[in-house]
């Protein structure tokens, strides 16, 4: 048995220098039918001293595995109907004050297709994301997920106070260590080299995938990121400031969340047809400039109208974030028309901005758990840019060019109705790649970077109730949203409909992703209710175009132009 090569130098030196380019791949014998026994003794010899096996469990075909709500606050869901696999949990010490854990699913040697998959997390959630690992073994992939070095729910950063080591684990180190050790254990288990490595994650998970290839371009061959919160030092400040646009609830400019659907349906009536098809979906929100004055309250206000100061609040939600002292300085894009129903997440109050913002200022930036958000001001943006706590920003586009140069592929998808992470941030990242790393050559970028902007999709999954905008396309968290036994798009588990399988075709068969067919169900999260609509989402800058003949609900009536 080849002993893998995480020898004496110790984890910090071996795993966390930028020189480390994955695991040596030479020296494996030809295909061996028998993997190691699924027990702790098999794996322990392949770990460095800083790492220890916590748990090894053999899961039978059709079985389930996870930690459940008593152990895992962040990801309590237990995937069911798994193929036979070996589930491994590892604990890794990264400093005297920080530890991360990761989980690894290893399908049977017969089912393993020499593929590796890492999956991401969401917000500040600290837990192994078992349910997002589950699709991996169904696709012949060994899969890993890390708790990112803490145990908490999505908006809790109490673990980060005054602890730069834990911040670094969340920022990049736990993912990098998980990928490195996960690959080592995978190759040891099968005594075979991994041929193809993938990543899939959304939101924070999108950031994690980008951050990892910026650190180590060789980590993956194909990366699928949704709604990436890549610009950490901006997005969490943007979120706090956006919440404050609609506070306090006693102010005359406060828009009650009960009015968000009214604004949504007004904007829909104004803008639906601008993209050429009246289908209750705003497919080109950039063509839409909402005019809310028709909603202005009459002399005797009704419950279905807006005051002038509420209209001013709404305008600020669409506008980019610029510092009040200098409106010509850009801080972050605003939300697009069609996002209105989703405003309740960040702007629904009633008393505080979302912890997705304030937990960053409190836990990372100011290390002050009792910092009052009322003290927020625009100077926190440059402060965050300069400090970048945990080195979490995934903003280095030159490093993405290195990833491209060694053949890596990137698929980014983002819902245009996203009201948590503005889709403009993804367009900005792509524009920076084109301009700063490829000298303006958008076609060269399109060879390895496909960006799919999904009309009507909200943050990572779903569409506004009643709109039936096709969204289900195999993005991170989407299978689990349909049920803990699902691992792809129900009934459509193929490369035409699932972004991860589309990426596999791109990497392994050279078929570039031009578009993926997204699905909406009659009841949002219920595949048994039947398909409401299917429609291709095209790689930017092309957009889906109706042929003007076929039923608009049918995928065959649409092409990319
Ligand atoms: C995470 O914290 C919860 C309490 O909130 C605890 O019950 C659980 O055991 C912890 N999990 C781990 C892996 O430490
Ligand atoms: C901005 O906020 C920070 C953090 O609350 C505070 O330290 C700083 O004094 C504030 N600056 C201004 C100009 O108000
Ligand atoms: C960005 O990545 C490139 C290529 O890996 C590297 O040379 C450079 O130092 C990085 N820049 C920053 C600011 O980290
Ligand atoms: C899903 O839809 C089916 C078919 O309409 C229905 O029988 C079932 O009750 C629905 N499930 C849920 C959880 O609503």
UniProtKB/TrEMBL annotation:
UniProt xrefs under SUPFAM superfamilies: alpha/beta-Hydrolases (SSF53474)
**Signal sequence bounds:** 1-22
InterPro entries in alphabetical order: AB_hydrolase_fold, Tannase/feruloyl_esterase
Task: Please verify whether the record's keywords include Disulfide bond.
Answer: yes
Q: What EC number is given for this enzyme?
A: 3.1.1.-
Q: Which UniProt keywords apply?
A: Calcium, Disulfide bond, Hydrolase, Metal-binding, Serine esterase, Signal
Enzyme class label: hydrolase
| Molecular function terms from GO | feruloyl esterase activity; metal ion binding
Family as reported in the entry's similarity comment: Belongs to the tannase family.
The UniProt entry, under PANTHER family, shows: CARBOXYLIC ESTER HYDROLASE, FERULOYL ESTERASE B-RELATED
Protein name, per record: Carboxylic ester hydrolase
Organism for this UniProt entry:
Schizothecium vesticola
